[in-house]
Structures are given as structure tokens and as C-alpha cells.
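Two proteins, back to back. First:
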Amino acid sequence: MKLLIASNNAHKIQEIKQILHGKFDEILCLSEAGIDCDPEENGATFLENALIKAKEIAKHTTLPVLADDTGLCVNALNGAPGVYSARYAGNHDHKANRQKLLCQLQNKTDRSAYFETAIALLYPDGKLVTASGKVEGYILHQEEGQNGFGYDSLFFSTDLGKCFGVATAEEKNAVSHRGRALQNLLEKL
């Protein structure tokens, strides 16, 4: 079976393909499927955003569509950046997002946080399977490592015992929010 990932985010696609390797005959991203569509993610939750993407992309294909929405939730910031994680500093600038987060946490003692992923898998016949995953940790005072993307260089995973920014892809995928959501999804299939 082929699967279409409702994304053109190279880092996200790479993670999903690594985690789902061998589970599908072929895994395509939007550009590989010739689809040029960028749905507006205006949902109030990660699952709502995943569903928005899955339903919109499904209009352009006959393949099953896997959409996810992921974000970093910081307890001292009342869950921010949350669903606005990718555009926390106003656009999709990872470095600016990290700098804004560090500024927001400057005088905070509670740096606990978690990453959360919600996934929606929508089949051409309308069947829908959803899943979620979460990983706990805390925000470092400065960036560490060059691996990963987004907030990875600031997020210390308590499960892994290290920052995602220094973890290998295999280490991160074993405990990550996206890895757990995809494993949860596979269990339901």
C-alpha cells in the first residue's frame, strides 16, 4: 500500500519515513505526488489541525493521507507555543522561534515542557484513524547540539536523558512524540 504524507517539511518527512520504513510499499510527500496545497492550520488543537490537513489533501489524491500536527507545550507559558509552535515568532523561522522561547522563559524557574503529536490517517473510502504521542522534558537555558530541527536543540528529553539536539535520529525516534504517535497508529491498523 502507498501512503501520502500531507507535508513538504523535509525533516518531518524524513522522521516519518524512518519510523514507518517497511510498513508501506511506498511513502510519498506532497511534492513527490505532484500536489501543491498548503491548508491553513487554524484549529484549536493538534488533532484539529491534523484533520484539516488530511481532509484538504485527500481532495487531491486517491491515496491514504497521513497528516500530523506537532508542537511544543511549555507549562510555565500556559502551554505555549502549542499549536503556534512553527510560527511562534511570526513565521516558520526555527531560530527566531527558539530565541523567542528563551526570552519568554528568562525569569521562569519551571522549565518543564512536552512535545505532542496528533496524527490523522484518512483513507479514500472515508475511514479515519487517529493517534497521538507525547514526550516529557524541559527547556534548556541555551541550545545544545546540531541534530534534529525546530526546538530540538533546546528540549531535554527525560526519557532519553539527553537533549534531542545531541541525540541520533534513532535515539530520538525511539522516544519522540512523533515516534510514539506513529507506533500508536500502527497498533490501531
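And the second protein:
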Amino acid sequence: MTTHIDVMRHGEPVGGRRYRGYSVDDLLTEKGWAQMRAAMPASPRWQHIVSSPLKRCLDFSKDLADSLQVPLTVEDNMKEIGFGSWEGKTPDDILAGDSEALNHFYRDPVNNRPEGAEPLDTFSERVWNAYLQILEKHRDKHILIVAHAGVARAITANILNMSLDDVYSQLRIEYGAIIHSSVDKDSPPRLLIKGPALS
């Protein structure tokens, strides 16, 4: 038997482009709702939904769980990474204080964290442990995790054994994007690239 775990990034939140970690709890815009609805397969097969506790994920998750008549679990360890002193700030806000801060961050996100930010390796470990717990609890089912770009990157990095620097600097996760993974019994998780016929 195979377990399928899909990770959907939330849609566009209110407030425009800014650094939202777990301390910024913005709602989705109407466009954000539309992005997530557009990403859904025509006939969803999800049997359980797991959501980040943040509203940009949880509001959609509740609506979808009601629509599909499937259980919903809120998982605190699927919340976004903490951005410390950058929480709620726009790129322009950050550059006003340090013109090189973003360049340093994107070149080496592991060692150039904002002040007070959650360490990237700690974040990756908490997300991966939560993923493995979900996998163990829901063997042979099709699960949807509604979470964040950072969460999708952390899961991808662990499945592909990529360095955190590489996955955070090279992998872009759009609003509403879905990362598909599957796990066969006694085998490690793998990414699953789906075409339209499999959706």
C-alpha cells in the first residue's frame, strides 16, 4: 500500500509582500482563496486534512474539510518559520536598515538569520518530524497538509537530501502550489510529479 501526502502552500495573504513567520497571522485575500481553489484537483481524494494553525492556512482548511466531509487536524509544528526581527517587515523596510541584509540572507540563509529568528536546521527538523508523525498515523491514506512555503521547502529538502541553503535559495513555491509525495511500505518518502491525468 502507498501513503500519499500533498503539501499545499496557502494563497496570497492581506498586507502585500512582507516576511510572515509564525508571529504574523494575516487572513487570505479573495485572490488568495481563488489561488487555492484553482489548485485543487477536479475530484479530490484527500481523506484527512492537516493544517498549520495560522489563519492563512486554517480558514481554507476548515472550509475544505467541511466541503469534503473529512477530518481536520491542526498541527502546530507545521506553522511557518519564525523570522525574528523581520516579522511583518517588507523588503524595503529591511533594506532601509541594512542594504546588504537580504543579499546575505539569500546567499546563505542558514548562517544569516534575522535577529531572534528560528534557526533553519531547527525549523527543518520540527517540520520533518511532524511529517513523519503524520505519515505514521495515516498509513495507506491520502493526506493534505495546508501550510507555508518554508514548510514545503523543508519537506522537499528532507525527501531529496538537499542542503537547506540550496533548497531555500533555489526552490520557489508559488501561492497555492502543491508538492506531492508518496511513501511505500518500508521505503523512504519520494516526490511524485503529477500530470493533469493524475490530478
